[in-house]
């Protein structure tokens, strides 16, 4: 794990946000169609809009929408130095390392299997020679 700390999360002020509650859409039946649990946030200075309807709870959707908005603004402002970009890079590095480890493991197993096959192939003629010894004629 890197000793480098992640940059702090971006805070979005209440004055910068326009919040609206919508009725959800998609699967969920009557409950999702009757309640206004979906949350849509608009960042007034940039015009960026995010919508969250992941859960049936309005408060959880508000929290998720605010987190998504903060991450998107951070990505726009800081680019590759943003918190989300650094997390993606770290995850990609871990996946690459795991894949490399897996390739090494199977390469080693393949080498061992090949070595065993070669050993068997060299043992077979020797075994045949001991079984079928040339008949020596009495002299």
What is the structure about, briefly put?
The chain has three helices and three strands. It has 139 residues and is of the alpha+beta class.
Describe this structure in words.
It is a single chain. With about 140 residues, the chain is an alpha+beta fold. About 55% of the residues lie in helices and about 10% in strands. It contains three helices and three strands. The chain has helices at about 30-35, 60-80, 85-130; strands at about 15-20, 40-45, 50. Strands 1-2-3 form a three-stranded antiparallel β-sheet, covered by helices on one side. Strand 2 and strand 3 (about 50) form a beta hairpin. The longest helix is centred in the C-terminal third of the chain and has 49 residues, at about 85-130. It is elongated, with a radius of gyration of 32 Å. The mean pLDDT is about 80.
Q: Per DSSP, what share of the residues sits in E-state strands of 2 or more residues?
A: 5-15%
How would you characterize the largest beta sheet? 3 strands, antiparallel
Helical percentage: 40-55%
- Tell me how many strands there are: 3
- Spatial ordering of strands, largest sheet: 1-2-3
- The average pLDDT score comes to 82
Strand and helix order: EHEEHH
Which structural class fits the helix and strand makeup?
Answer: alpha+beta
Number of helices: 3
Q: Roughly how many Å apart are the termini?
A: 79 Å
The whole-angstrom Rg is 32 Å
Shape: elongated
Low-confidence stretches: none
